[in-house]
Amino acid sequence: MFRKPLVVLDFETSGMSPEHGGRVTEVAAIRIEGDQLTERFVSLVNADVTIPSFITQLTGITQAMVDQAPSVDEVIPKLIEFIGEDYLVAHNASFDEKFLFAEAQLCQQLPRHRGTICSVKLARRLRPGFESYSLGPLALRLGIKFSGRAHRAEADAEVTAHLMLNLGQHLIRSHSLQNAQIDAIDPELLVQVTRLKATKVPTYIASWCTESVVAAATLHNSNTGKNKVQIAEPKEQGKQFMNHHDHSKHEPVNVPAPKPIRFRHYKGGIYELVGEATQESDLSPVIVYRSHDGSMWTRPRAVFFEMLNIDGRQVQRFTQIEE
User: Domain Exonuclease: where (predicted)?
Assistant: First the structure.
């Protein structure tokens, strides 16, 4: 179902915000590969913090439980390693990702996930009109059962994982993917859908399907002369691309090939530039790039180099790695 792995993350915490002293008390991360839950990382966490009584009433996590748990300095690096460069999913993702980055910073670690998908936003856009999008009511509405106590990390992460599978099946059945004979969902599509208004989702998905079919035809039929996207060699664009050495005819044939041009996504993923292309349908420029697993991606050039406002700080979506 999903073309690339997703890691569903859920934290239980001692407070609502790391800015106000909240710390992680429990973590669960479950990997989805295709349509299967394949791996999980679960641990209580000792962050040397006092557990408020209302947190114990809500979650069942007591002071004694966290006092005997592995230290946060031990758990968080293992969690970041478990997530790796996969896409991150969480129900109300801004909450969990905020704690992930805060705890990682305290441990002098840097998360490397390539993108974040909020299952609340995704459900709102793919299944509009529900009374509630809180995890419990939403799971009940969709017939997803908890296998453990709600408000415990593993139970919540598992339900969120099954929610993602449910939404993926709905997306394939109810939108243009089935008509386009696309049965593997690109997680980047889900990232983009969460940024749209619900009314714009069907049109966007239809457009994405068309572009995916064109890209697939380009990559697999590059020798047929029927490409819809013309891929150019990497070239200089202001300061965005490194200059390639122009070998003259007098240089020996065995001159080493230039190093690949690599970019770091602002979330931490690393990608290699393949080239620039022109979309035949509207002659718009796109960037063609390759992920670490060899899969090929395209993105409009303006979006590839877009500046984003993250916590009041301007960052570029993709930044060239100087080597």
Answer: 5-173
Architecture of domain 228-320: Roll (2.30)
Q: Long-range contacts made by residues 74-78, C-beta under 8 angstroms, separation at least 24?
A: 75/24, 75/27, 75/43, 75/45, 76/24, 76/45, 76/103, 76/104, 76/106, 76/107, 76/109, 77/107, 77/109, 78/41, 78/43
d(CA 53, CA 164): 32
β-partners of residue 42 are 28
What residue type is 235 in one-letter code?
Answer: K
Which tens digit of pLDDT belongs to each residue from 226-275?
A: 434 433 333 333 333 333 334 434 444 444 445 678 888 888 788 888 77
Pick the CATH number of 2-209 from 3.90.1150.210, 3.10.450.50, 3.40.50.720, 3.30.420.10: 3.30.420.10
Selected catalytic residue, list 91, 113, 151, 162: 151
Phi, psi of 27 (to 5 degrees): -135, 145
Query: Is the whole model's pTM more than 0.70, yes or no?
Result: no
| Annotation marks residue 162 as catalytic | no
User: Would you tell me how many other CB atoms lie within 10 Å of the CB of residue 226?
Assistant: 9
